[in-house]
Design goal:
Blueprint (H helix, E strand, L loop, with lengths): L2 H9 L9 E3 L6 E3 L7 E9 L11 H19 L2 E11 L6 H17 L3 E8 L4 E9 L16 E5 L4 H11 L2 H5 L4 H8 L2 H11 L5 H9 L5 E5 L3 H11 L3 E4 L15 H6 L5 E6 L1 H10 L7 E8 L23
Parallel strand pairs: 4-5
Antiparallel strand pairs: 1-2, 2-3, 3-6, 4-6, 7-10, 7-11, 8-10, 9-11
Helix pairs in contact: 2-3, 2-8, 4-7, 6-7
Length: about 325
């Protein structure tokens, strides 16, 4: 079974309903209201050695930073602000010294930067490294944005870049991993990269930028009708966004990719490689012009890539039919 099929099986299992659960399985985050006066947004993610990263070409300091950053991306898709986190860390016994300290240096650096204090978790021994993070977020005002609430005619916009992380991974596969694994500062990694584009690709892979500010701004200002973060590849996450709203994506002009990508990966790889952590949002047509004129200049660029329409009667809207990273199929 594919990852999408496993998730669909879980969603179909009946559970006792709770008045505190506003949104359960099936979005970037669950939404809870334990006091019936607030919106608590929560998500969890795991990084597994050999699946999401390879220790032989990634310094534990970068791994620690990335572990929090990829979880923050789920909050961005709901328009939420970080509040706190839990960390579950499994380590082989020989990594409880320098590896552990370097990992925690990186993790806590991002905790402080994003104001998401580490409030607990669990440590365990094992044969390989597993990193699990649970992240909580909150909304200062209003309601979260779901991936299932888009409407026919909404424009689909992309915030951030896609393909750079896949190109960074491709670079790592072609280089001596022992050199990369010894690098722990951004300055040294940029010097090793050799040019600005290669550095952008490596940074996108090691240290992705969660679109917290853009997601929060789009939600607070009433622009986004639905949102999802791009973690498994633009193509499959676009299908998830449109399919959960029971609509079909109608592409506009060709998706504009960074021209430097052509020398490193194919267009197909850029659209399906995953780990971009960009943001997809749907914007009702009557708000699109206001978005063009009112979008803050300090936020990452957005561009329209298409719109949503009603599907034909014989169309099946399922994300497992789209290309993208699958945890039970393709491996990094």
């Amino acid at each position: 079974m594919t990852e999408s099929e496993l998730i669909r099986w879980i969603r179909n299992q009946k559970q006792d309903e709770s008045p505190f659960v506003l949104k359960g399985v099936g979005d970037d985050c669950a939404v809870l209201d334990p006091t019936r006066q607030s919106r608590l947004v929560v998500s969890t993610d795991v990084l597994v050695e050999g699946v999401h990263f390879r220790r032989r070409w990634m310094h534990p300091y970068f791994l620690g930073r990335k572990a929090l950053l990829v979880n923050l991306s789920d909050l961005a898709a709901m328009g939420a602000i970080p509040a706190a986190c839990l960390l579950t860390l499994t380590l082989p016994p020989d990594l409880t010294g320098g590896f552990f300290r370097s990992f925690m240096d990186g993790f806590l650096e991002e905790v402080r930067r994003w104001k998401a204090p580490l409030v607990g978790g669990d440590l365990s021994g094992g044969s390989s490294v597993h990193v699990g993070v649970t992240i909580w977020g909150h909304l200062e005002t209003g309601e979260p944005v779901y991936r299932s609430t888009a409407a026919e005619g909404d424009a689909v916009v992309l915030v951030g870049d896609v393909g750079l992380s896949a190109a960074g991974l491709n670079l790592l596969k072609r280089e001596d991993p022992t050199e990369v694994a010894a690098i722990r500062t951004e300055k040294d990694l940029a010097a090793w990269a050799g040019d600005s584009f290669r550095w952008r690709c490596l940074k996108a892979h090691f240290l992705p930028t969660p679109q917290i500010q853009a997601g929060d701004w789009l939600r607070r200002n009433g622009f986004a009708s639905a949102m999802i973060d791009v973690s498994d590849g633009l193509r499959i996450d676009l299908q998830r966004l449109s399919g959960d709203s029971r609509l079909r994506f109608e592409p506009g002009s060709r998706i504009r990719l960074d021209p430097g990508l052509a020398a490193h990966i194919s267009e197909e790889a850029a659209l399906t490689g995953g780990e971009d952590y960009a943001l997809l949002a749907t914007i009702p047509g009557d708000r699109l012009e206001r978005l063009r004129t009112g979008y803050p200049a300090h936020l990452p660029e957005w561009r329209r890539i298409g719109s949503l329409r009603q599907p034909d009667a014989d169309e099946v809207l399922r994300a497992d039919q789209a290309d993208g990273f699958d945890h039970f199929g393709r491996r990094r």
